[in-house]
């Protein structure tokens, strides 16, 4: 089970950090790509307990997990385009999670969704009515998963990864490079500096 500390799951990339120099965005985006590939390739079923804000790369982390669970009032979404950035690292996972049509709508529109809307779109698999009910729902689902045979779950997960293209690491890594190219563009740098000043 992957979850965040406090009231947030993962608020995404530190925008001030990516303005430091040219290598920092590439390094951070490559590491995010590597992390998502590692999460998907684990033999164990990985559950995202989205306890609060899951923004940008944080929402991508939830999408790459095998099962994502949140509560109705959580905040999720991909505001990258709103900031002049490109969500290419997480796009392959979002497409696999909710399909190309819905992914196109979510990623191009940007903005933030409630947990309830994220569930309706398929970004989240299970929804607790409120934050207080999240732990019980996660415990129920994790207990159910633990009843399955570890080898059977691993084999099924491996097969699903082959069927949906999750084992195509090259696409995610290309996404990291594309995202870095956009972050480093003059337009994005100017927009980010103006936003953060």
Structural notes for this entry:
This protein is of the alpha/beta class. The protein is built from 9 helices and 8 strands. A 4-stranded parallel beta sheet has the order 1-3-5-8, sandwiched between helices. Strands 2-4-6-7 form a 4-stranded mixed beta sheet. Helix 1 (23-41) packs parallel to helix 2 (57-64) and helix 3 crosses helix 4 (100-109). The model has no long low-confidence stretch (mean pLDDT 95).
Topology:
Elements: E1 2-3, E2 8-10, H1 23-41, E3 47-50, E4 53-55, H2 57-64, E5 67-71, E6 75-77, H3 91-98, H4 100-109, E7 112-114, H5 115-121, E8 126-128, H6 134-146, H7 150-164, H8 169-183, H9 186-196
Parallel strand pairs: 1-3, 2-4, 3-5, 4-6, 5-8
Antiparallel strand pairs: 6-7
Helix pairs in contact: 1-2, 1-8, 3-4
List keywords for this structure.
single chain; 197 residues; alpha/beta; four-stranded parallel β-sheet; 8 strands
Based on CA atoms alone, the radius of gyration comes out at 17 Å
Tally of DSSP β-strands: 8
Element order: H for helix, E for strand: EEHEEHEEHHEHEHHHH
**Class by alpha and beta content:** alpha/beta
The average pLDDT is 95
Number of helices: 9
Q: Globular, elongated, flat, extended or rod-shaped: what is the shape?
A: globular
Flag low-confidence runs. Answer: none
Biggest sheet statistics: 4 strands, parallel
Helix content: 40-55%
């Amino acid at each position: 089970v992957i979850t965040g500390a406090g009231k947030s799951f993962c608020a995404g990339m530190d925008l001030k950090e990516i303005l430091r120099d040219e290598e920092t965005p590439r390094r951070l985006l490559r590491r995010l790509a590597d992390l998502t590939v590692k999460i998907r390739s684990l033999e164990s079923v990985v559950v995202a307990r989205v306890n609060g804000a899951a923004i940008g790369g944080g929402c991508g982390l939830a999408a790459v997990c095998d099962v994502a669970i949140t509560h109705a009032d959580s905040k999720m979404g991909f505001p990258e385009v709103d900031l002049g950035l490109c969500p290419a690292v997480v796009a392959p996972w979002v497409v696999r999670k909710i399909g190309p049509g819905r992914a196109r709508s979510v990623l191009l529109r940007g903005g933030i969704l409630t947990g309830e809307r994220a569930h309706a779109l398929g970004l989240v698999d299970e929804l607790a009515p409120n934050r207080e009910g999240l732990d019980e729902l996660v415990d129920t689902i994790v207990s159910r998963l633990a009843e399955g045979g570890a080898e059977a779950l691993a084999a099924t997960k491996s097969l699903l990864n082959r069927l949906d293209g999750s084992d195509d690491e090259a696409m995610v890594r290309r996404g990291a490079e594309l995202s870095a190219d956009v972050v480093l563009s003059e337009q994005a740098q100017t927009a980010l500096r103006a936003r953060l000043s």
